[in-house]
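User: Structure tokens for both sequences below?

Assistant:
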Amino acid sequence: MPDDDDDDETPDEPENWFTGGDRSGLAVQAPDSGRQRRGADRIIGDIIKKAADLSAPNEPQAARSNTFHGSGYTLGSDEVESQFVPDPTAPPATESEDEFEAQRVVRELTFWQEGFSVDDGPLYRYDDPANAQLLEQINAGHAPPQALNVRVGQPVEVRVARRTDEHYKPPPPRPFGGSGHRLGAPTPTVAGADAPTAASILMPGTFPPSSRSSITVTHSSAPAASPRSFEVNMAEPNTSVQVRLADGTRLVCRMNHTHTVGDIRNFINASRPENAARAYNIQTTFPSRVLDNESQTVKDAGLLNSVVVQRWVD
């Protein structure tokens, strides 16, 4: 007597459907979406487990050396540039420590009910075979450049968030992503019967009046130009430029290859508005070179993944 269990389909076998009338019919095979989803769940579990293992605290070492060793910098001033002192015990490297630090990026990988996303990017659905290959690469310890927006071999830290019980939520639209005018002094006078107040024209995030508008803005004196922000298109080639300010602060600026040296100055002035009132140069570290052509792109200036320094002129 045959076993009843033989009639049951195994979970891995595709389901067969039958469609048609009483004299003709067609046997079709159901889509294999269930198997693809099970495969995605397995990979998600592996990635989350690996992330948990990496974030677990390490066991304390039995004995540690109290002797300090490493690299550093000599004390410098406005006239004498500080010099980098490498670690004599460190193995030889192909790039400097500053360049390596500027290249490192952080990406947040979020698993949703129907797919996964990277940072504020679009949804990668689990039922897409191409996206399944991306998960396989991430699970194997590789960083897919097209998904994580990194260069081949670039250091990246992936932070994992599991929200598989929620549907994908697109990021909220940004309120403003262009340039504008900052509120400054002296207060401008506004002519026109229907003209808005001066503050509404010069508030951050507003556009200047168009040529069709009847609004005329006059200043009693010409204040210094306010720094302008710029927008980074993550779909285009981009890079990180580390900026060492004159006060010792370090900033990292994300830019497209088409942004200019002038955009680096705008970035500095936006981060430190008081710097706009004092003359300074932007120059490379080694060899030292003043970047005086502010219309030159960061790619043409050789500033991709580099370090620049702010130097006071007076």
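Moving on to the next sequence.
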Amino acid sequence: MIAAINPEPDERGSILFVGQDKAGHWLVQAQHGGLEGRFVSRDAALAFASAERRSIPGATVQLAAHPMISVFSFAPVRADERAV
């Protein structure tokens, strides 16, 4: 997937949330979507969020106050599924 680059940064900045889902997976999600990652530890999630923050003007990193809901399923791939 190729994402369009917006030449005008969001003046409000963006928030990268770091937290766990109800199953205990560590996630990083952008406030307005478009970014999600799953990590093995809190430290790994924070390191990723900090690195991404540097490339997003005005972005901040915050710990999520509530369990996060992943956009992507972490369920194993079924036998009749395949990657596109």
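User: Anything stand out in the second?

Assistant: The first helix runs from residue 42 to 53.
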